Amino acid sequence: MDGAPIVVHRPSATGGRRVSVRGQILGLAHSDRDLVVFLEAAGVLDPEQVLDDPLWVEWRGGGAHQWDAAWPGQSSPEV
Question: pTM to 2 decimals?
Fold first, then answer.
């Protein structure tokens, strides 16, 4: 296998992260719960168990489980 089959892309400017499985975009997640729902719909068994497994999930451009647009070195957007 070439890399993790699940990719959680970098946070968008408006918050949330695009999620793809084997190149197919599942949607825009705003929380771990959203991510789990997407993965369940895609047929992943026990998705909560794979979120921190780098063989299954690659978190790109931001920390794992970070859903807002700010990451280390950037300020949070004004509310």
Answer: 0.83
Per-residue pLDDT of the chain (79 residues; tens, 9 = 90+): 578 999 999 999 988 999 999 999 999 999 999 999 999 999 999 999 999 999 999 999 989 999 987 655 554 444 3
Degrees to nearest 5, angle at CA 73 with 55 and 33: 45
Return the number of other C-beta atoms located less than 10 Å from residue 1's C-beta. Answer: 6
Please tell me the distance from the alpha carbon of residue 79 to that of residue 38, in angstroms, as a whole number: 27
Which residues are CB-contacts of 2 (< 8 A; sequence separation ≥ 6)?
none
Cα(22)–Cα(7) distance, integer angstroms: 8
DSSP state of 73: T
